[in-house]
Amino acid sequence: MDYAHQQLKREKVFRDPVHNYVYVKYQVILDLINTSEFQRLRRVHQLGTTSLIFHGAEHSRFSHSVGVYEIARRIIESFQKNFMSKEPGDGLWDDSEKLVTLCAALLHDVGHGAYSHTFEHIFGTNHEQITQAIITSPTTEINQVLRRVSPDFPEKVASVINKTYPNKQVVEMISSQLDADRMDYLLRDAYNTGVKYGTFDLSRILEVMRPYKDGICFEMSGMHAVEDYIVSRFQMYQQVYFHPVSRSMEVVLNRLLQRAKVIFSSEVNHDPQTPYLLLPFFKGDFNLDDYLQLDDGVLNTYFIHWKRYPDDILSNLASRFIDRKPLKSVKFDKSTSNLLPRLRQIIEQSGFNPDYYTATDNSFDLPYDAYQADKKQIHLMQDDGTLVSLSSVSPLVRAISDRQTGDNRFFFPREILKPDENVDLFQPEYDEFNRHIRNDQLIQ
Amino acid sequence: MDYAHQQLKREKVFRDPVHNYVYVKYQVILDLINTSEFQRLRRVHQLGTTSLIFHGAEHSRFSHSVGVYEIARRIIESFQKNFMSKEPGDGLWDDSEKLVTLCAALLHDVGHGAYSHTFEHIFGTNHEQITQAIITSPTTEINQVLRRVSPDFPEKVASVINKTYPNKQVVEMISSQLDADRMDYLLRDAYNTGVKYGTFDLSRILEVMRPYKDGICFEMSGMHAVEDYIVSRFQMYQQVYFHPVSRSMEVVLNRLLQRAKVIFSSEVNHDPQTPYLLLPFFKGDFNLDDYLQLDDGVLNTYFIHWKRYPDDILSNLASRFIDRKPLKSVKFDKSTSNLLPRLRQIIEQSGFNPDYYTATDNSFDLPYDAYQADKKQIHLMQDDGTLVSLSSVSPLVRAISDRQTGDNRFFFPREILKPDENVDLFQPEYDEFNRHIRNDQLIQ
Amino acid sequence: MDYAHQQLKREKVFRDPVHNYVYVKYQVILDLINTSEFQRLRRVHQLGTTSLIFHGAEHSRFSHSVGVYEIARRIIESFQKNFMSKEPGDGLWDDSEKLVTLCAALLHDVGHGAYSHTFEHIFGTNHEQITQAIITSPTTEINQVLRRVSPDFPEKVASVINKTYPNKQVVEMISSQLDADRMDYLLRDAYNTGVKYGTFDLSRILEVMRPYKDGICFEMSGMHAVEDYIVSRFQMYQQVYFHPVSRSMEVVLNRLLQRAKVIFSSEVNHDPQTPYLLLPFFKGDFNLDDYLQLDDGVLNTYFIHWKRYPDDILSNLASRFIDRKPLKSVKFDKSTSNLLPRLRQIIEQSGFNPDYYTATDNSFDLPYDAYQADKKQIHLMQDDGTLVSLSSVSPLVRAISDRQTGDNRFFFPREILKPDENVDLFQPEYDEFNRHIRNDQLIQ
Amino acid sequence: MDYAHQQLKREKVFRDPVHNYVYVKYQVILDLINTSEFQRLRRVHQLGTTSLIFHGAEHSRFSHSVGVYEIARRIIESFQKNFMSKEPGDGLWDDSEKLVTLCAALLHDVGHGAYSHTFEHIFGTNHEQITQAIITSPTTEINQVLRRVSPDFPEKVASVINKTYPNKQVVEMISSQLDADRMDYLLRDAYNTGVKYGTFDLSRILEVMRPYKDGICFEMSGMHAVEDYIVSRFQMYQQVYFHPVSRSMEVVLNRLLQRAKVIFSSEVNHDPQTPYLLLPFFKGDFNLDDYLQLDDGVLNTYFIHWKRYPDDILSNLASRFIDRKPLKSVKFDKSTSNLLPRLRQIIEQSGFNPDYYTATDNSFDLPYDAYQADKKQIHLMQDDGTLVSLSSVSPLVRAISDRQTGDNRFFFPREILKPDENVDLFQPEYDEFNRHIRNDQLIQ
């Protein structure tokens, strides 16, 4: 039998805490999982610094990726049962799309690296481009597996992920406002953090999800299940993804890598503290193979070394990150942003370089999205086959989509609030700083 | 107020997926959690290589340690409600033991390092001794926190963990056949692997647990809950802890570190692949501070480097470990162990050095224990105050305690079963090897 | 010891699927549970006709009542730990209110009867008045237990339930927008129906709930948990409580009792089909004791008898109810209500008496309430002690509170849509009827 | 399309708390569910008096029956995917058996009545025979539905249930040591009581279950899942089904019906307290239609009436049952059974008729079975296709199967332990009685 259709003699099952089991029947899928590029995902946390706040959130991109694969598999299983295409153009499910969909689901995040958000910001990498490269570069094991299916198969899988694939059903199963990716990460992040808000009724959603000619929609009878998913997503952002302490640790990481870049772009000391695997990035001259050497553990190993590096800012920031000493933060808005220069001045007076020890951050800059008005809406199909948009029938969803403003925060060293022998600050300045903070907000 | 009794203004809660919340009220506990030695536990997986088989099992020693603390806290809360001592010697709970118990619960595993079982085997370290050292050495942050309580407090905490503390109730809460440690790891490992077997009724056990003059026992009415805990523990060993593929990955790790020791004990090349932080261990001359630099990520970082090291065995074993290529294994027993020399010979003929590519292993050598007859039994208290042992009233528990034999396995390269161009083996030897394997066992 | 403070030697625990255990320590509480009036609640379903749609929802008022008691107990336990009053008027928890609170929580629904909503509508009873009567009438066992505490204790308990008790903390714990009653029924109804929407984070809410001088509020840090509770409540109404088929079965029950009232108010045949225990209600002359004889099983027993009663409408409606044959329904609104007279006419032509076989119903007439603007709002306490209302900080809650309109439905016999030999209707009328129904709505 | 293959246009789903959803695709199945005989199961509790101890256990035979159907449906779905027969006699799944299997699964308990165990004991009915009668009698709605499939279809369905159907795979799916029936009731009873012991890994068991030529077996890799099911079953018997207070309430019910039989076999007063629907049973002359009028509510309605019946024993026992006043019990064995006559004598002296107020009972007489050595064993299939019995590879299962003795209890009025004004007993007799009871056992 040709490789594309080659099935395992006995279906392989992976125990999964969220989906109970992940079922693998295709040899191609098993071979992809066994590549070194995919195994690397075991060494990259799904939620980066969030596990420093929700200690249970220690799961990896690997777990999430097989979870997305499994949800896609179940969607297709449901489509096969209820919505198989009988003739081209009838808007139903064409089962010859199965393998490309499963591969894209499995591989959609394979380009993610250590602490992606901050890393990309500092080094100008882009995990989506790298995902494309891993799939299409002839040097990778993943590409070699995919090419065994057919020479153009890597490109097809890559095009599903970058949304240029012609079959919109396949694309929307992986990337849309309600897709396998989002469903898995919400459930998995909720499971591992232990918050209750992220759970929704996956099996009901699978039951009411259906193909139609322009993509994927949901039967009207499933409106409440879909609504509940949107609400859960909103709550996860508010509670977990936008958590101020997690953002604070991202700020520390950002400043730490910024400082390291200053130092290691020039110096090349061959001592134990040199971050060999990061040098290509500091120098701005890296290739795919360099990228694939990196993971959370590699970065942390350098940070551990840097705790003893003879640069005060680098070593201090490395300690703050590795030993989890977040900056403190408060909310501010237009009416109080005028205070920030003075607060930075006080911080500088107390001995902290404000370039490295302060920051502002808006939760809307984070790589998570609420249900957005400017994207393709979720649609519901009525009994007579006509479509209505979710927000037109759900006041809850309308309330969420309309939320426009983010949460602005100003970050600064915790020491400034409680000066001790280490902080060199006069009482009047200390009092001034404290006077502007009340109920977690800046006030005049 | 003195430091020992200093309480946080507002109880601090940590979201925990297993216990829902972990509650911290003592400043001492919060300060201990914030030490660098304790934060290091975030970077050490609780289950080592097991996450390579149960992909959800990516939780850390940190999560487990706060979980043990939380269970101990709940036990004490229950004792306070129902079993407070009224006079010395009445065999009830003396609440002045609370803080030492909580500290010991939190810190009982603080000496664990990366891949402890194998690491200790290769380098002769011992995580229990290191736990004692971390608590009692004046150089650690943990010792400094504990000393603020009182000068002899570190020693007291350490003595609870090494079971020499005079109050047996305190000791058995942390270390006995049914203690806070085991209860947390069973629940947490079950939660994260996703297997159903490890769950038992924690709240019922807390309800029926009680102090008595010689330690801790359980009310007769809770017999079934305790029995269920023992059965769950048994099932977790069978299903998770003794999993043959997990043991196979331990074998690979063992061989990898063994090879690295041969290489790096002598050479000191100052190149990127030198494992600086491991050198003290290869040289057999390390101190506590050296140990505290290590974690899973540090070891993995070296393994990633070694994939390109110019020693075939080292680089091949590093790839097998990092890219998850387990050895294959089969069960054997006394009647078939005579076959092993010949099988090793065939493996050698096929080009694998049997010192590095074969192994035998008995599950009973693993650092997990079934309910054992030679340890202090679990006791149940009847209505009239008399005690009976659990195994005298539960045939299930008796069945488990009596199981004496382990599961012997022989490990070898998977390639030997399906020779391809990479394996240099004649067909007759290949056939001979395969003939001896049936239903996962060696046969004559 | 006096009866009010008499504690059981060993705390009694009841296994509860929602709260795991219900803990009883007071003799008074155990004695109340053991009264015949309270045991009667075992024979009254919590959700009436809803179990005909969600078959798992077979739980009783008994289970709910002990659940409300348990939540109240846990709230008080939390108040005792964190918010004990030190001096009168400090707005904190006065623990001498404990017993009256627990009794009120346990007994708040003791006046509920079989199929309360419809029963009250037909017979003019009122379960809230009956609850008061059961507690305060010297003839009941419950009154006798309460009087042993003190002569005015029954009146105190009753006044908590009817909200005239002076301590607003006690009143709001039992009856407010976020009280022990609502929290238990949402969790329990969700658990038993199996829908996922009703779950929220009870332990978090208990953690952030606190007394203040005018009642009960929540700490700001718990905003999301409270918001999630409101959303869950909204979703339960939409999905479960307002389910159209459940309302349809209520319509059938209503018509059935209406017909029975016509028949049995006059006739008194002493035959097996006479509803002896209902006669006082048909005659409008009943006492508390008559009421306490009734339960779901008694009513159903009469319905079973009536399936053979020689009145076509009574026997047909009894069969429809007992054998679960709901009416069909469609939504209508102001723009389509003009069609109803003609539809009723067609139904009459087809042989159904429209007084008994049609109905209109608005979900807002049901005895459930969304989060309402005209009631005392839920308040959140900020760090500095000031209060803000929940809807001022949560757009989700605002979206829910603003929903003003209900869901109007017109009910009619299912046979009218698919005429068969039993329905005597000409094709043009049948076509006309069907033409007005599309996507579950009336259309012109 | 013929009725046997007629599918619903849109699959119908029932929300189920245990299986999440129950899926119905065949018109036949929906029609069966809508019969009056099947709807009657909503009014019969699954666990009878057990809900008086575990208050959550209020679920009905209806819920259980659709649950068994759903598990059978999932087993077949798995068989269709992996084990479809290719030629007669290959020992794999013959899909033409699907409908008969689903119908048998749905209907296997349709003959159960109110408080079956005790009812059958008193009136000589047999729910298994009645199940057969309901299916095969031309008068029932169920028979009419089944006959539409084919004239011999009712007999085929009935023969599956009474185990004479030739295809053993079909029979064992419904009735064997590990069948759809047992799996549903364990999970459902555990869910509703709230005990943790009854849960096992259903999806894993479905995964490893397979047909073979002599019935159904399990793949070796599922050994632990099957073992866990057996252990869970054992624990549910010990904890729930054999609960002494539940058995005590069965004793009260037994004595109550016994007394009623004495009274109503002769008298025929046409007053409100006459149990019209039970008269055919008291007279020993009933037909299927009489039986189908009965349910829990009907019996309870009579008991409520009887609380006021002018026979002291009948009214007292009715009150004890309706108001939940269990008898007390103690364990005894061969060495103490000689005490029973004297204890009965003391009870008689205190004014209780020992025929109605005492009883002995052995848990092994209850209609539940542990894993039994004399039934067809559970078999596991090894890699090479050979079978081994479960107990040969699992010491846990061996331990359970070997347990031979039951738990003997002696039941007596609680008043005898704490004589008050209502009990006419001299102190020496009272002391004598109490002296024989210790740690829940009779002693000499």
From TrEMBL, chains A, B, C, D:
Keyword Mitochondrion: no
Record-linked Pfam families: HD (PF01966), HD_assoc_2 (PF19276)
Stretches assigned to the HD/PDEase domain: 57-195
UniProt GO molecular function: dGTPase activity
SMART domains associated with the record: HDc (SM00471)
The organism's place on the tree of life at top rank: Bacteria
InterPro entries per the UniProt record, alphabetical: dGTPase-like (IPR050135), HD/PDEase_dom (IPR003607), HD_assoc_2 (IPR045509), HD_domain (IPR006674)
Keywords: Hydrolase
GO biological process, one term: dGTP catabolic process
Record's protein name: Metal dependent phosphohydrolase
